[in-house]
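Note to self: user wants both folds in one dump. Writing first protein now.
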Amino acid sequence: MRMHSQHFAYVIACLSMFLYLAGCTHEPADHKVRDAISAYFKAKDYQVVTLEIRKIEREHLGARQYMGPERYIVQIPQITLWPMKEEAGPEDYQDVAITIRKTMSSLYGFSVDSISGIP
């Protein structure tokens, strides 16, 4: 009987460790975030000239959707956009926050979900 309880404890410990590690995710690579943001603005006829990324962090637990895709908040101190179809000059924006989500349909693995700080 003692052998069964030790085996059961071992199985529970391994299962707990697996679930813990499966729940740990890392922020997306910087180049993937840049590519996703550039692709978003390119589709809107803007070229990203400069893009400074301050921080990439996982969305807070209270804001997550149940069974929704992983989302990350990208803090951008400065971004410069150049309109491709207009003869206007570059447009600078400071303190921008862009939320990206993990997606299987995007070429870059992430797509822009929402933007604050750019009208």
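First done. Writing the second protein, which came from a different request thread.
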Amino acid sequence: MRPLMLALGATPLVGVPALIGLGPVLLLAQVSCGIEKHDFLRQLRQYIPADDYVMVGNILGVSGASDDRGAAERAGWRFIQEREFANGVR
């Protein structure tokens, strides 16, 4: 199985070529359907089998206005800040 990496929003598109080289699944999503982000992540984990679940996103008040790190923690996903991802952290 491969890891599932989730990038909510448009900014992480710069990471797509690096992901293609590594082979994990990348899911880009704009979520504005009234569901909490951590609930969306839990549903993905429930219905999409993977070895690892990684969210690429923001840290509230540090790198953006959304609490992607908190959502990842509440959903049991590993988190990578967008800037770290752009610098090669996987």
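Dump finished. Worth passing along: Residues 13 and 20 are 12 Å apart (CA to CA).
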